[in-house]
Amino acid sequence: MTPARVGFYVPAMSTVKPRTMPGVLELLPPEQIAFKRMLDTIRDVYERYAFLPIETPVVELTDVLFTKSGGETEKQVYFVQSTGDRQHGREPDLALRFDLTVPLARYVAEHEQKLQFPFRRYQIQRVYRGESAQRGRYREFYQCDIDVIGRDRLALEHDAEIPAVIADVFGRLNVGDFTIRLNNRRLLRGLLSGLGVGDAETQAAVLREIDKLEKRGPGRVAHTLTESGLDADLVRRLIDTLGQRGSNDEVLAALDRLDVADETFRAGLNELRRVVEMLRASQVDERRFQVDPAIARGLDYYTGTVYETRLDARPEFGSVCSGGRYDDLAGFYTKSKLPGVGISIGATRLFAALLEAGLLKAGESTVKVLVTRLDDTLGDDYLRLAARLRAANVPTEVYAEAARMKKQLAYADKAAIPFAVIMGGDEHARGVAQLKDLRSGEQWEVSRDDLAGAVRERLDRR
After folding, report:
1. Which of 28, 108, 356, 439 is least enclosed by beta carbons within 10 angstroms?
2. Which residue range forms the structural domain that includes residue 448?
3. Among residues 324, 356, 388, which one ends one of the domains?
4. Does 91 fall in a domain?
5. pLDDT in tens, 88-101
């Protein structure tokens, strides 16, 4: 047989070493189960807050995707090209999405007339970036996003709703203490204007540098800003202001006392204060959110409230959930003004870090019962037992051939199946079966009519 040609030749009898490309997370079943449960927890909370699911294609047209280009984005895109186009030397007009924000903008603009606004969407899908192969950086990874999109306007209440969702998600994930840090880009813009940094382009550059404060430290950031031409005294005042710490009320009061005569600064401060008040009204534990004037979010499209979430005991993880308010989601695709607010959780990176740190454990098997096989003449009866268990919502596997019981139980143990059902000719004649807990070693004789209920009861105790 001649092998297919796809731009290269594979010898007919060659053996290819099985391997994955760098930058992907491929898990064994126990870890995959834990990852799925993490995604299920996130999905459950999103739906609890009335967000609706959408999915978009993994491949987008390049002219649509590159509306959010610039910087490193174009260097990280994976293009998609058919064999025919490649052979004819055509430039690719398709590419893999690198985030879920651009597809959301396209989706809302394309379906605007069919959507109910404010549009509340969640999306849990893979994205792709040509990252260099290094620890914690992935080329294929899951993002878990929520956004609320308005038409023409969007109430500030949604800015407070988003951190309430974040607090609920991370509380249910049981990853220890965490802090959602809050700020407002209008406050920062107004602060810069009040200090005399009035040029919008310069302000954007300063905000991108401020976003590196925690990673680089105040000294290096101050040096960079001074080297870029800002007055040293202005930089010192700016760094001191951004370093305000204390309770939420203390930080807000300190910001209020600043001698900054700028309307944008005051508007941003009032929005930030109101978000804190609404979080309290939503009964979000105040230990879980902190006003932090240094949070800037480096992306220029954020215009109001911004968020970063960090695990208190693992600051080296960096932000595990971030986002904010933006004025115009889909300006490249529609003349409608579509403001929004949202966040994204990089689930793959978060899961891998939590697993490595021992904050998450591999999941239990999704299979709960192994029906063993002692007597091949009872094969149909084993199938009937399994059917009754599955009808009671108990995931069940039937051992496919007669074998020594020791071998069958060893199989169940290695597969992390917690219970085994044992039925030989004597049990069959008496209408019973043996139910064995493979963790404790306990074993009970149970009527076959009561078997499903007995398993269900013991599973519910765990």
Report:
1. 28
2. 369-461
3. 356
4. no
5. 888 899 999 999 99
